[in-house]
Each structure stands twice: as C-alpha cells, then as structure tokens.
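Risk register update: the risk of archive-format incompatibility is retired. Evidence:
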Amino acid sequence: MRLAGKTVVLTGAAGILGQAITRRFAAEGANMVLVDRDAGRLAGLAAALPAEAVLSVTADVASAGDMTRVAEAAEARFGAIHVFLANAGIEGMAATMADYPDDLFDAVIAVNLRGVYIGIKAVLPRMADGGSVILTSSIMGMMGTPFNVAYTASKHAVVGIRRSCAIIAGPRGIRVNTIHPGFVDSEMLDRLIAQHADPAASRRGMEHKALLGRLTLPEDVAAAALFLASDESRAVTNHGLVVDCGTLN
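Archived output:
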C-alpha cells in the first residue's frame, strides 16, 4: 500500500477526475478528505469507501473560511495532512476574448486560481514535513489558444504558484508539483466540445493530435497523481508532469 497511513485532502473530489483519484488513492490505503461543492455526489462517493477512512466536506474552494474549516476538520479527524491535491476546476467556455463574458472570466479565476491559493494557505501549516502538494494544471497551462482565455490564464498561473510554493515549502521537505492533463475523456470535455459546430469531429481531432491516438483517461491522471503523492517521488519537486498521450509534441 503506497499511501498507507497518509491523509489526503482532495478538492474537486466529486468530478470524474476526482472520483478516479479517490478510488486509486483509497485502494492504496489513504485516508481521504473529500471536498466539493456538490453535496449529493460527494456523499455518494464517500459511501463507497470505508467509513473509518473517509471524511467528506461540502465547501467552496474559493472561500478562505470554507478551506480553513476543511483543513481543521481533516486535522481533527486524522491528524497531520500528508498530501494536498488541489484539483477543483471549472472549464469556462469556448469563446474568443472578444466574446468572453467578464463575469465568467472572474468565476473561472476564482475556482481555478484563487481556489488553489486559498487551499495551500489553509493546508500547508497543517501538513506534515515531507508531504506532497499536487496542483492540477493542464496542457493549457503550457500553451496558448485563441479560445477560452480564462481557463488558459488560470492554468498558467497555477504553474507560478507551484514555482513559488516549492521554494517556500522546500525547507520542510514538502514537494510541490503540477499535473498537466491533456484532453481528458470527461464531463468537462463533453461540455466544451458540445459548444463546437461538430462535437464528434472535434473529439476525433483531439484523438488524432495525440501521438497515442486517444484521449487521456481519468485513470491515467490518477496514476500520475499517485506517483507524486507517494514516497516514490521524494526527490521530485517544482516539476510539471504532463499526462496527455503525446498531445504536446
């Protein structure tokens, strides 16, 4: 068991990617603190895990009060936190900058960027030395696009947070890394490509662009996250791990 005895705080737990990470981490012995705004889906996910090894907390990751409550609850239930995986995110919309609603830009930044910042501030003081902070970025955090500037900007900024926090946390032996998923076969991707004129053609185009000829699966990202959460990555920090089936090439 690669995470036996470790406590993991996971935001965005109720989404497809969060569910895959939860299943993989729980199978490796982790105590899971599951955080999401969707109380119903969160409860269903928690019900599938051993009661003694799970704590679910309905919270808004962009709220400092909510995330302080999450960190305090995790510490009270399981003791020190060993892994923080800031995975909560929203996709925004596929639109040019000229057509992008300002209020939606603010909403994307609030979850994808402020949520990461607030979460680290709440959790890091309660994290055990030698722990691991994992931030979900995207291949869009490594490239530009004429569409969805809010999502792209937020995922670039997460890399900036990683670089700074790796310096801050390094003296305590805490590693800080980002995961950069490609086009993940998920509800989020479905919602985005549904805005395209020909969603099926868009999906085929994404598959064709990847060197491995397929979309990235949630389980692929969960496996990468497990490596970064485990002691096997004890010498890896301030690194961006790309999991995209070769889309960036």
